Structure formats: structure tokens, C-alpha cells
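Q: How would the C-alpha cells look for this protein?
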Amino acid sequence: MSPADQPPSAILIERPTPAVALIRFNRPPRNVMSPALMAGVTEAIATVRAEPAIRALVLTGVGEHFCAGADLGSDELPGVPMTLGGPPGAAERLRAVYAAFLALVDLPLPTVAAVNGAAVGGGLGLAAVCDFRVCTPESRFLAPFVKLGVHPGMALTETLPALVGLARAKAMLMLGEAVSGRDAEAWGLAYRCVPAADLLSESIALAERLAAGAPAVVRWTKAAIHRAIALDVHRTADTEALAQALTFGAADAEEGLAAFREKRPPNFRGR
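A: Here is the predicted structure in C-alpha cell form.
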């Protein structure tokens, strides 16, 4: 296969400034999570960690959206075949998918999510574990798991309450309510809401400000804040992976995903 015939990389890495790395999810238009994209995130973060000159990281999506989460139009979600009855090893496969997410969690560098368009489900999970989120009025933050019959993942049951408070987190997770870019800024979910034309430049400028701080102090401060609020994303992600594996094997998940694909309200029966 010639280089021209090869499929495009699911992840793009750039250096907009010497101290800032930029990772782009490259599966437009929705940048849904695929095994290739998640593996690419893991590799890209390893590349960033290995470069001492990089002091801050920006994540964004190519095209209209940041990341729309799993490809619900597919017969198989990342790492979890849609087989009812609790497929053997589903939790382990989910944990493997979570490797990219946890690589981002464990990155000591300050991180900025430039949320263009939608951050949905697992895409919201990736944005939520970044240290800062910059968005636009057109951005949408959504965790629709309850409408799909699937347990939330990517540690959203921990990160959202920490970011927006218990009542608003419950509205997002238990009602599946979407949050606009302007509301995200007002709630503290986003650091700033800026015009779409300025999103990337403002996000890189914020990363440059973070990179200008004393590197060790920035890293230790990040770790100390997480410790102070008892943020244990690894533990929560592990619990959620098990809960997701169990709910993926239930009839309500089959109904929720079928309803999504058929564009109709789900008829959940509690099974």
C-alpha cells in the first residue's frame, strides 16, 4: 500500500509552540471513539511525556466536534461486543479501552480541552479529566447514558460532581440533560466560552500561560489539588467499567441502543 492509499491517522500531534503539544482526534465529523483512536491517544500521550520541552497539552477534534463518544451506530462499541447476557471479559475489554483515558488522567502536565461542538459520553469524560476546558457558544456537553440503558463511564460519576456540583451532575447523568457552552462557563464546567473562530488560539494561549509556570510547581499543585478533593479517577473508572459491562449485557441496553439507531423513544422494562 502506497502512502497515498493508507488510511489517515486517527490522531494528529502538532507543536503549535515549543512548550505546547496539540493532540487532535481525527475521525471527523464526530470523532467517535474507535479502537484505533483510543490506541492513538495512548501513543500520543506517551510521545508527549517523552519530550521534556513540552510543558502543556491541548486536546481538540478535527472538524465540527470534539468527540461524540462511542459509535452507537456500530454493532460493536469500543472493546465491548453487543452480546446480551454479560459477555465474558467485557469489563477487561472496557479497561483496555480506558487505557487511553487513564493515560490522560496520569499525565502530570497541565491539560486543556478545546471543545469544538459536541463532547458526548466518553468524549465528555476525556474533556472532564483535563485541567481546563475552553468551549464556544455552540459547544454541547452531554452524558446520555441513562437514555441508552448503559451505566456512565470514563469516571463521569466522580468528575462531574467535582466540576459542577451534585445537583447539576445528577441532572446531566440521571436526566441526560445537555449543557450549552455558555451554561458550561457559568457552571464552572468550562474555564472560558469564546467565539468559535478563537477557540484554538485561546486554548493554546491558555496552555502557554500554564507552560510559563515553574514546571515542578505546576505538576505538584495539580497533584495536590486532586489529593485534597480525594479525586480517585482510577478507582471510579474501574467501578464504572464493571457496571458498564453488566449493563451492556442487559435487555434495557439492547432496547436503548436500538431506539437510538431507530430514532425513537426507548421502552425500558427494567431488565
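Residues 10 and 26 are 5 Å apart (CA to CA).

The chain has one domain: 3-197+213-262.

Upvote if useful.
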